[in-house]
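ingest -> fold -> write
write: protein_1
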Amino acid sequence: MATIALPERFSPKDYRFWLSRCLHILKNSDLELDGTVFADFSSESRAFFAAVAGAAEKFGRHVRLAHFSPEMKAEIAQIRKIDIPKAEAGASMGPLERLGDAGFRLLDTLKTLLFLLSESLYWTFLGRFDKKRLPFGGVGQQLLRLGSEASGIVFLLVFLIGFTLSLQSASQLNTFGAGEYLSVGVGFLMFAELGPMLTAIILAGRSGSSITAEIASMNVAEEIKALRTMGIHPIQYLIVPRFKAMTIAVPLLSFVASMIGCFAGFLVAFWFCEVSPTNYWVGLRENLPLLLLFKSVVKSMVFGWIVTLIACHQGFKARGGADAVGKATTVCVVYSIAGIILADALFSFVFY
């Protein structure tokens, strides 16, 4: 019979360590648990004794309790392992049922996102007049982390994509002797479509995943429960600063990225179409109406809201351990990109 001296209490980190040691011994011999210093009946302790009792019954071994008080032995004897019944084979859903279940889950997700949007808009614009509001800051810090630090990768990728599309368009326009119209096409394409959408997609992979990972880690570590215990509203403390930061950062980055894409088009027009700088920039200025710039700002702002709300929603949904954080981050990026493309298609119907 092997003896294991139990610690004073079981923490969530070392619970699996002690359980694996006991299971390894029970496979080969009987087990004696020494409770000289043990003095804590937490949920981890109860789960430990239930698992040990189940393993002893499974392997046909005996477990002896040494140096436990009579009260502890009586409490340990009352612990029973709960066996969860397996699902019946006929309980699986058919194709139509799975489709309906997915539809209801989608509606529930949209309802939650609309709730987060309304709460964020309220605490951004009207909440400042609420006397019960706690004066949280952090918008400047989130602007730096989510917007400024992401500007390099956004500008580089938009420049490369704009240069590639301009080069391909120039080869076709030169065939018909219409290279001077490259500025009009590149300008409209950048401000109406590629600038806002590319900026939002890049921020979804860079900043959205960061938001989800941070909030999911806090949720897994039960820090969000601690905020509620202290009377701090998680939406005010976690979502609103990021919502404000993305509302400001995405339109600014989108506008600058669109200008950089137009500059890439200028390089192509100057080198391959022999268009003078004056003709290019004058044509760009005269053919881009102010309403188009306003539409670009509105689209990029909505795209930023989509990324922020989906990222925060997935962070709050995370349950489990480190694998839950990774899954939530992956789902955030996929859903954000899908939401951006869907919203861009709806904007195309409305604006154009």
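write: protein_2
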Amino acid sequence: MFFAIVFMVSAISCTTPRNKYIKIEGYAQGGVYVVTLNLDGVDVRPEEIRDSVEAILQKIDFTLSGYNRNSLLSSFNHGDTIVPNGLFVDMYARAYDVYNETHGIVDAASAPLFDMWGFGFKSGDMPSDEDVRKVLAHSGMKRLCADIETGTPLAGADILLEGDVPPQLNYNAIAQGYSCDLVAEYLYSIGVKDMMVNIGEIFCDGFNPSGQPWTVGIDRPVDGNNEPGAQIQGIFRAPAGPHGIVTSGNYRKFYVRDGKKYAHTIDPRTGYPVSHGLLSATIVAPDAITADAYATYCMVVGLEEAKAFLASRGDMEGCLIYDDDGEFRTWCSEGFVLEDM
């Protein structure tokens, strides 16, 4: 694993102390992560902070990654009996809560559906309607018990409430947000007040090295725009306080068959990829796992339901970018201001 620490020293103003920012960079969860933080008032050495962040991300990979064949999650999905650690138990509990809160629209026990369509941990492509019906009947958190225990041997059959096919789990809809929150929790524990944690999804608090609110670029959801920041729809300035900021979209993971686009957002209620004009949803929430979950939620339900949902929630803001007869249109909730580049 490659990592680097970059030091940035910025005088915020003539009346404030000289703040010291560092940037920790490396590879995790199939991409690059960047953690920027202010060392002012922190007694922990930068190298120790780096090592602790790396340890957190490595533990997440060992526990929750479906792409790591040696992870606890991969072993569980393979049908092996595992001894779950606290991280495995916590993620399962959070996924169950998200399932209930979203009325089954964000469902971590739908891994076989994603695999079948080629967007999961296994190869797949264009299943038949009968295949979808069969897999759908054996998917879903509704079939599983709500609680599991740390340190108790666990196999799929041990958590089944109904059915005879053991569950398979896929946490992709919330894992990166959860990772951001865990890293932020550690940074808070050592006294960090100004931070941005970017692990594909974002958690931020405090101010950037210029003493201003953190800014986040919202990618333009053009099909094939695979490089974050290459094409920007606009800029969002994070409000004061802790926030998770997550974008979900259907412009990076998809394929086309017979002229029809099949995107990676699967509706776990039907078993099929969604087909509507909502191209991306950016959600701002009190933490990153919540923002991650509800960005996926919006992408499943589509534009009108997503607008109604955001208008009803005082604890979240959102930006929805959608297709209107070939033109990009943007809808933002009252507290979400999208600035032009």
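write: annotation protein_2
The first helix runs from residue 46 to 64.
The chain has eight helices and 16 strands.
pipeline exit 0
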